[in-house]
């Protein structure tokens, strides 16, 4: 046995039990109330701690091209930050370029990850230019292990696809065993509101939120759900932020349609639309799309997480430096690059805000940050649980560790965290990837390039209904 985790409390999406975990060849080989330590090459004492499946962050943008530059965190610093946050697998978005093929997108993103990633990675492909040959290519990508495709209903004039393209694509993804996902905001309405705001001289960061109203998200979410229903396709709505969108998903699910929803920690009430008022252009730090909402939205999202209307929480880590990149928009909020960092903080923040405050159970925490993503995206049971035969991707979480989230302790490369000053009780203290300790007590030990591309299986919607 290569590694034995002794004395901890194993927490999965289903159970919570005092157990030892034996690891060999990168896989879990035994889970039992007592495993003899004499044959183990290394023993980790996990007493007083939770032993949980490593988090799966299904929504990152590492080294994403933007205005001739890239997001600050690449696959090295991004996965370093991920490892320190208890994340053992990411699913990043490969972006199809205009006129480019899906294969090109996948090869480009694989090239950026290879030799750099510290943890395992998979890819969605974002389809931005939907031609008949691209529709044909979807099944080839499924064979390559890319089984989810994202479509933007926002960003008119750049990434946005129209309803016909979305409808046709959803028919194809469904036929190929893939999942269609949408960024659901009405790009047409946002475009009108943005132009009006700027014409009136309303250029400060807060107008980013005011020109992307919750109704624009609710409308697009409802429309995507209707298109998916007509296409006979399952659908996933990424980064749900508005109660209007939650209601749309809730109604569809209650009516028996397979619609999944993701939300992110930045929408859960720790920060909100009032942060856009921070002085000295500080509001730009929180410019992401959809925007942070007013205080009436987060309680609805929490209920949706607790009752199963939203199934997973990922970071949407899309990091732009405040100095140098965000400041590009000081005279026009439309030029502020959209996105916030968060891959390192999701697990600890969700535990504190969710479990410590009685909003979700520990089992639900594991489901939301790991197991459900594995099931939805075709990684289960290789990842997303602690069971014999699964990858030994494990986070050891100390529920008593108190810390204040701050830029000083982050492992990312970007120059701020949106959760600066947030106090938590409970934080990951060790991360194990395929049996190797890659993070321990503040220090990332995993070597760049050790992370591997994980081909995903076709989507099986029978794994996760509620
Ligand atoms: Zn995103």
What is the topology?
Blueprint: E1 3-6, E2 9-11, E3 16-18, E4 20-24, E5 27-32, E6 43-45, E7 50-53, E8 55-60, E9 65-66, E10 69-70, H1 75-84, E11 87-95, H2 102-113, E12 120-126, H3 132-143, E13 148-152, H4 163-175, E14 179-183, H5 187-199, H6 206-210, H7 214-231, E15 235-237, H8 243-254, E16 259-263, H9 298-307, E17 312-313, H10 346-355, H11 362-376, E18 394-404, E19 423-433, E20 436-440, E21 443-444
Parallel strand pairs: 1-6, 2-7, 8-11, 11-12, 12-13, 13-14, 14-15, 15-16, 16-17
Antiparallel strand pairs: 1-4, 2-3, 4-5, 7-18, 9-10, 18-19, 19-20, 20-21
Helix pairs in contact: 3-4, 4-7, 7-8
Bound molecules: zinc ion.
Please explain how this structure is put together.
With 466 residues, the chain is an alpha/beta fold. The protein folds into 2 domains: 3-52 and 388-400 and 425-444, Urease, subunit C, domain 1 (Roll); 55-376, TIM Barrel. The chain is 28% helix and 22% strand. Strands 8-11-12-13-14-15-16-17 form an 8-stranded parallel β-sheet. Strand 19 (423-433) and strand 20 form a beta hairpin. Helix 3 (132-143) runs parallel beside helix 4 and helix 4 (163-175) packs across helix 7. It starts with a strand and ends in a 22-residue tail after the last strand. The model has no long low-confidence stretch (mean pLDDT 97). Zinc ion binds next to loops.
Features:
466 residues; alpha/beta; Urease, subunit C, domain 1; TIM Barrel; eight-stranded parallel sheet; seven-stranded mixed sheet; 21 strands; globular; binds zinc ion
